Amino acid sequence: xxxxxxxxxxxxxxxxxxxxxxxxxxxxxxxxxxxxxxxxxxxxxxxxxxxxxxxxxxxxxxxxxxxxxxxxxxxxxxxxxxxxxxxxxxxxxxxxxxxxxxxxxxxxxxxxxxxxxxxxxxxxxxxxxxxxxxxxxx
Length: 138
Prior knowledge:
The protein is mainly alpha-helical. The protein has one domain (4-124). 64% of the residues lie in helices and 4% in strands. The protein has helices at 4-26, 48-67, 69-93, 105-124, and strands at residues 38-40, 44-46. Strands 1-2 form a two-stranded antiparallel ribbon. The longest helix is centred in the middle third of the chain and has 25 residues, at 69-93. The protein is elongated. The mean pLDDT is 92. Keywords: Membrane, Transmembrane, Transmembrane helix. The chain crosses the membrane at residues 7-32, 52-69, 81-102, 108-125. This is DUF4383 domain-containing protein. It comes from Leucobacter rhizosphaerae.
């Protein structure tokens, strides 16, 4: 697995699966889509829906990363784009009824950071190098 997209996808996917599982340890007793969640690692606010989203995203990244470079690149780019949107929109919905994932500022920053890495890798790594197949024409 020499593909940067595959490696990043599997690593990020693994981290998001672990975060999703750990989230359930702190979200007992709150509603599935509670606006005010409990803190994971003392800083990231989560609720059960947020945990499920982390598990789903982690699974998608791992599956694509284990499949092939094309799938990993596509999923990294898609998840990166979604996280960019969630990271930006999160700042505007944090104190509203639309905040069904119990997002806080630490979540927004983490989502934006994840977006930058995943989008950067998807757009910049594993590009096919064009090799000339015939005589060079000047």
